Amino acid sequence: MYKRHRFPSSLIQSVVFLYHRYALSLIEVEELMLIRGIDVSYETIGRWSLKFGPTYKKALRSYQSPASDKWHLDEVCLKIQDKYYWLWRALDDQGQEIDILLQPRRNAKAAKRFLLKLLGKEGFIPRVIITDKLASYRAGLRKLGLRLDHRRHKSLNNRIEGSHQHVRKQERVKRRFRSPINCQKFLSLSLTIRTCFGRITHKLRAEAKRAYKHQSLNIWLQSTRTQENFI
To answer: What's the CA gap between 118 and 31, in Å, rounded?
Structure first.
């Protein structure tokens, strides 16, 4: 995986982390590396992101705890190549990203496809699903024959609607995504990393915050190094 690369694997892992974790452009990441005395082009950083991102995402998700039985589902509109797409997202009640799926439609068929992906990934039917009042969710559940507690209320879904801000930040910095495939790959890793690092509340004491940050960083380092050992 890292053969024939001029830079060490630790640098590649750090650069990919910075690009996906924070709302930074490729040029801004290039400049951050230059400040540290490392001359790497933004084109190279982009290629590393596409090549190693999916592998890092898979490894990082293996360290996540299983999702709870209460899911929040919502979708956000993205414009890619002058066409509108819908990013379907699902969080559990702990704020953990379950999965995402970028689709060109927001109808019952798209809702069914997203639900099937979630059920296949988690392997169980949730106790509660919370959505807004989009009728596609109800139609998708009916097509799948699922009987569960489906709560349709906009204010109940504030947890996931607030988390769309990270997607919007990334979209603005990238000046919109270039293609649906790259958008799906980028946001899959970006939102997975955000789940790992982004749940520190202001109510925690300083010691607890530092412990959480170190724990999150160790998970990232262990997941990427584990992949390195198998290659």
So the answer is: 38
Q: What is the spatial order of strands in the sheet that 97-103 belongs to?
A: 97-103, 83-92, 70-80, 128-131, 149-152
**Measuring CA to CA, how many Å separate 36 from each of 30, 39, 40, 47?**
10, 9, 11, 21
Cβ count within 10 A of residue 229: 6
Please say whether the beta carbons of 39 and 171 come within 8 A: no
Count other C-beta atoms under 10 Å from residue 138's C-beta.
15
Helix (H, G, I), strand (E, B) or coil at 148: coil
For the CA atoms of 163, 166, 168, 174, what is the dihedral angle to 10 degrees?
-160
How is 56-117 classified by DSSP, letter by letter? HHHHHHTTSPPP-SEEEEEEEEEEETTEEEEEEEEEETT--EEEEEEES--SHHHHHHHHHH
The Cα–Cα gap between 133 and 6 comes to: 52
Query: What is the per-residue pLDDT across 86-125, written as a single tens digit (0 to 9) for each?
Result: 999 999 988 889 999 999 999 999 999 999 999 999 999 9
